[in-house]
Specification:
Blueprint: E1 2-8, E2 11-12, E3 16-25, E4 31-36, E5 55-57, E6 62-72, E7 85-89, E8 95-100, E9 109-111, E10 114-118, E11 123-129, E12 149-151, E13 161-166
Parallel strand pairs: 2-7
Antiparallel strand pairs: 1-3, 3-5, 4-6, 6-7, 8-10, 9-12, 11-13
């Protein structure tokens, strides 16, 4: 058998990596599938599956290189796939270390005086909201750098909530 297509999520905020595509060409009718994090061909006693796996579980955070494998009914195993997929698994949310804005602002562009956040793999998004409900990692309001100010439409009292996001899509606590 020949693995012709293989794709997995490039990042995961869970210890399960989503397998997005796994296609095999085989002239026979019996095909078994396996994903490993090793370029060494698995043997017949490996945990082969009758259909392509949907996830690849991992025990820890880190970088993983995934290799797809196929086995035919005669026990022949595919060659090592030429384009393995590297995936970052990061289950730890970034932290906001400090955030400060003036208690009173004479303008509708409220200045952000201080904003410091940390993540062992880096911050990829910043967002200030008016709600304590965490934004989704795919919210279109995320910016790649910390905003200098927050715009409000009217005069009044506003609570500002800072959020940061990392490359795996983990969102900080408020």
């Amino acid at each position: 058998p020949v693995v012709t297509q293989f794709q997995a999520a490039s990042t995961s905020a869970r210890r399960e990596i989503a397998i997005l595509r796994f296609e095999v060409v085989e002239t026979g009718t019996e095909v078994a599938y396996l994903v490993t994090d090793s370029p060494v061909p698995p043997d017949a006693s490996a945990s082969w599956q009758a259909s392509p796996p949907l996830v690849f579980p991992v025990a820890s955070d880190g970088l993983f290189v995934l290799y797809p494998w196929a086995k035919d009914g005669a026990g022949n195993v595919s060659a090592v796939y030429a384009q393995p997929v590297t995936v970052l698994v990061d289950t730890v949310a970034p932290q906001i270390l400090s955030f400060r804005a003036p208690a009173i602002s004479g303008q509708r562009a409220i200045r952000i005086d201080a904003w410091d956040a940390a993540d062992e793999r880096g911050i990829t998004g910043y967002l200030v909201s008016f709600s304590a409900e965490p934004p989704s990692a795919s919210d279109d309001r995320w910016t790649s750098s910390a905003p200098q100010n927050v715009l409000v439409a009217t005069d009044g009292l506003f609570s500002l909530y800072p959020w940061v996001r990392d490359a795996a899509g983990n969102v900080s606590a408020c």
